[in-house]
Predict the structure.
Amino acid sequence: MEFSSFLTSLGTSFLIFIVLMLLFAWLSGKPGNSVIYYPNRILKGLDPKEGGSRTRNPFAWIHEAMSSTEQDVISASGYDTAVYFVFLSTVLGILVLSGLVLLPVLLPVAATDVGVKIAKTTSNGTFSNLDKLSMGNVKEKSSRLWAFLLATYWVSFVTYFLLWKAYKHVSGLRADALMSPEVRAEQFAILVRDIPPVPEGQTRKEQVDSYFKRIYPESFYRSMLVTNNKVVNKLWEELEGYKKKLARAEAVYALSKKTGKPEGARPTNRIGFLGLIGKKVDSIEYYNEKINEVTPKLESEQKDTLREKQLDAALVFFSSRVAAASAAQSLHAQMVDKWTVTDAPEFRQMIWTNLKIKFFQRQVRQYVIYIVVALTIVFFMIPIAFISAFTTLENLKKYLPFLKPIVDIDAIKTVLEAYLPQLALIIFLALLPKLLYSLSKAEGIPSEGHVVRAASGKYFYFIVLNVFIGVTVGGTLFSTFKDIKKDPDSIPDLLAAGLPVNATFFITFVALRFFVGYGLELSRIIPLIIFHLKRKYLCKTEAEVKEAWHPGDLRYGTRFPGDMLIVTIVLCYSVIAPIIIPFGVVYFGLGWLILRNQALKVYVPAYESYGRMWPHMHKRILAALIIYQLTMFGYFGAKQFIYVPLLLPAIILSLIFGYVCSKKFYRFFRDTALEVACRDLKEIPNMEQVFRSYITPSLSSDKIEDDQFEDALSQVSRSTSFV
Amino acid sequence: MEFSSFLTSLGTSFLIFIVLMLLFAWLSGKPGNSVIYYPNRILKGLDPKEGGSRTRNPFAWIHEAMSSTEQDVISASGYDTAVYFVFLSTVLGILVLSGLVLLPVLLPVAATDVGVKIAKTTSNGTFSNLDKLSMGNVKEKSSRLWAFLLATYWVSFVTYFLLWKAYKHVSGLRADALMSPEVRAEQFAILVRDIPPVPEGQTRKEQVDSYFKRIYPESFYRSMLVTNNKVVNKLWEELEGYKKKLARAEAVYALSKKTGKPEGARPTNRIGFLGLIGKKVDSIEYYNEKINEVTPKLESEQKDTLREKQLDAALVFFSSRVAAASAAQSLHAQMVDKWTVTDAPEFRQMIWTNLKIKFFQRQVRQYVIYIVVALTIVFFMIPIAFISAFTTLENLKKYLPFLKPIVDIDAIKTVLEAYLPQLALIIFLALLPKLLYSLSKAEGIPSEGHVVRAASGKYFYFIVLNVFIGVTVGGTLFSTFKDIKKDPDSIPDLLAAGLPVNATFFITFVALRFFVGYGLELSRIIPLIIFHLKRKYLCKTEAEVKEAWHPGDLRYGTRFPGDMLIVTIVLCYSVIAPIIIPFGVVYFGLGWLILRNQALKVYVPAYESYGRMWPHMHKRILAALIIYQLTMFGYFGAKQFIYVPLLLPAIILSLIFGYVCSKKFYRFFRDTALEVACRDLKEIPNMEQVFRSYITPSLSSDKIEDDQFEDALSQVSRSTSFV
């Protein structure tokens, strides 16, 4: 890639960023848009414009984000978001500390070497200034390579140090969250699966109750059997749908009274396919009728579900946090595949449909899905390698000669050259997360957060293996394919030549990600447009409007693998082409700043896992470090540096570091430590309320009396047991 | 090996066996020997000669052993011994079921083939009748190999079926043991290690008590700090030594009154080095003096130890079994390397000196020892291969020509040929267990039984890898070393030729083991001789005599790897040379019978782990099966059988079977299931007694009042807490 196209790419990205920033400053000031730019605050009942925003200073948000504390983030967006910021600032710290040493030391060392002629690059072969600053400019076997070797160690030690500190900090955050004096329902419950068949002469409820009462005579409170809610959920959704439509019809009617004739125009609809064909009816009457028709059906189905459709899973409630935490960790049955316990997920995280999957089926599903994902990763590598090789202009012209006239126009050429490969990548990557999410869900995991973490892990391997390794190796190999055929032994030499050249590609990739990606993130142009369109043409009731602007989650599950790709790229090139470090710093610095604003004012967390994502983050940063060390090992080898075995201790050290961390910290992220769970609560927990918070809306009804629940939900064991 | 030398070997072994059996029948009838042949019954206070022995029928013991139930074994020798019999009968079952199909099917198939000329055997190259019955006699690529392939699967399925049944059975035994209504102290305690430094202004005792009282306000009973007992133990042993010597001196004096002059001869001793030099003193006076001198020292050291020498480990006692079982499985501290808990070993299993080793030091020690053992295994393989190759007579004559005249004498030649290689092996193997035991102990394991299991596992790998693979591969390679140098590609062919030939070696090895080994075991010639010598020349007091005949443990830890060697050998050759199966059946049948007698009448278990050895046994039988499948895979390959990939599913099936078993059953062998621990006891446990049973003898003294223990042992939390 030529230097000029590199600058063009940077320049364009920066321009887009500036435009988006200006848009944000302008749009966020308008009162009608505050539901888009301050939804978190509005939902919390706070004044959206509190603080600097009132002064209309367009940069006030920067000051607010910078001066916010971790506690502010926790109270606005929860612990998981705070942990995501620990990730951002840890990576930022690693890059800053690395850059502070690597840039002033390595750039002069590389630039002042006499330089070696590098094998043909993917562009015209002109040797740009950028490439002069990279390790590619250092001669083979040169003693200058010592500086790069030491730099590799420096980056490793910085990473160990900051990761250790971060793990300790996050462990503390998690402890704070779990020992909080607030009553949180999930801390009083455990999830029991694989309950054996009901013995003769007992109901499922009696079986579960007697089992747990016997083991926990004092702390057992009550159990709730999990039922198959498919039918009842469908009925309930139907009913809710009619209720919404009724509200909507009433709103339309009220509006027509105000705007049109004083008696109003009663809204009508057709009852056929999609409301397009069939008889025309009065909507309000029709929906009222429907509601009256469905309600008794739902009620009888509710009773039926509770009595007949019990599954072999249950939630068991305890009267103290310690009892629940301890029960969730203990083996209950002699056979491990019976009465399996885990701590209960939050109600909003429960994946009820997965609860009926049996122990060994879960194991089988897990392995099958691992294999499927591994195959997907391996077989996507091939197209990716082709994409990255094809989408350089050189290759386009070569293989698709009819494009030549268009591509040769200077302006188009520069822009295409700058963006084509990166765009191809970004579009490809956007298609994946959904697939991985459904695959992870199919493993039989009972909690939403866990599924997100599992999917995120798969996405990480996908991105890193395919994009990073695919582009580096594929791009290099492809562009020099003929040379290899002539002389296969030259592969290491080609890689040695290819690695620094790819650096420019990745720098523009990073820059595109932060300027355009974060610009769009902050300005929220797309949600804004969608919201205004919806409000104008679709929303009739208050509830519908509220739904239209609901900001959703930060979605760190998909954000994080993207960030990890940047971490991997920047780490791997940090020593080879240290000039990439500032770009990485800007990516994470800007990311931290903009997401801080979004976390404080925009996004609303969908669930809370108290930092369970951190061990994944930690492991993956470490994996990136090891990939980096391996890359350096290979690259030093290709540079014929005879002291390259001195890098092996670094790799072993990384493995030991990972082992020690997981030994020391990990189990607390899986199980609740009892010393944490035994802290006092601020009030005696209202167990009835804790219990009721786990009743699915489709099963909860004012008309259903408690004694009708009896079949699925056990009675209070002793009314005074929870003191 | 020639057929005649094979028969000689068998004949000699059988002769020795008959002689030992006759000796047993004669000696066990003599009343003076009953402490050697019935010590278990005597120690239990039962009549040693009850049942058939009274009739002087020398084969009554066989009837008694056959008719004894598992419950008899459990009450005589405990659960661990019963589990060892499950192992023996499972292996016996596998071999019998395999033999019933393999012998009638495979022998004719092999014997009726035209036969191939096999490469030079280790003997004169005469092709014996035995070799004709093996798979070596089947031609390459022959369709007869199908029978052998199916036989391989039959053996595998028999193994899966019996192993599954056995695991289920042992799991039930363990559950029975753990839910027994007897009060067993270790079920009420947990072992806590890695207690963090004492906070300012607290004692260690207060720290531990407040920590556990807070988490278990209702079930915590009391804690006992572990102290460094080195000095106090030394003093206590010194005192006990003097007490014994005093008793001995008094016995000698009493005897002299009876036999010599009526006033008696007061015994004297010298106080210098080993009682050989120095001043002569009156023994009774001298030892009394010494006891009076050491006793106060011991008492003050006891107080000192309890107050000053507390380590960062403790035993914590709970008032119920469920509470203790649950506590032992739960994470207590936020950092996993602090307050680590495990269930408490029995008092007699405690390895107090290991308790002070820190969390990460234990990890490091473990890995270091794994590496040491792995290196030992690898580097012992070389000498073993040489031993087995050298100690064939052929080679002895070749490399040590001066032995030729002796070796050529016919009688000596036959005996030597029969025993030389086996003896070399057996002697070598006898040296190992001690080393592996100390290595395992150095890992920092807190319980004796666990150390024995760990050592046993190492011993298994040692034996199987070195003996089996070493002899097979080494022996074959060595004897044909020159051929290989000529043509390295012929290695598979050589192995194919060598495997069946080695079968004869292993058959004689197995026969030697069961005839001589079990003959010695039953007749107890060596303990008998030692006992009579000791009683005659050394023992003066009743206690000394009792010590002299104390039978000790069954030592399944070292017995089991030896058995596993036989299992591995017989399994591996079961299809190649099915004639080995009857020898395996006799080994395990005879073993079962003779050890049943020993378990019922002789050995006294040193500790009880409630069948924790079983998962190891299970895993190792499965490992032997996989080694067998791999051997068959290689051997079929060497026979150029093109359907050999059909064996791969068997190997995968074994891995899946192992995975499923360990998932379903294993955790219950590590942790106590709460549904088992919650069974009712036959009486309210006397917690004071439970607590006192863990006080080391060197620290327990009538003179030390309970309040002096206060520093290390916490007070009863609430006197009524254990109802």
Remarks:
- Residues 118-127, 714-723 of chain A have pLDDT under 50 and may be disordered.
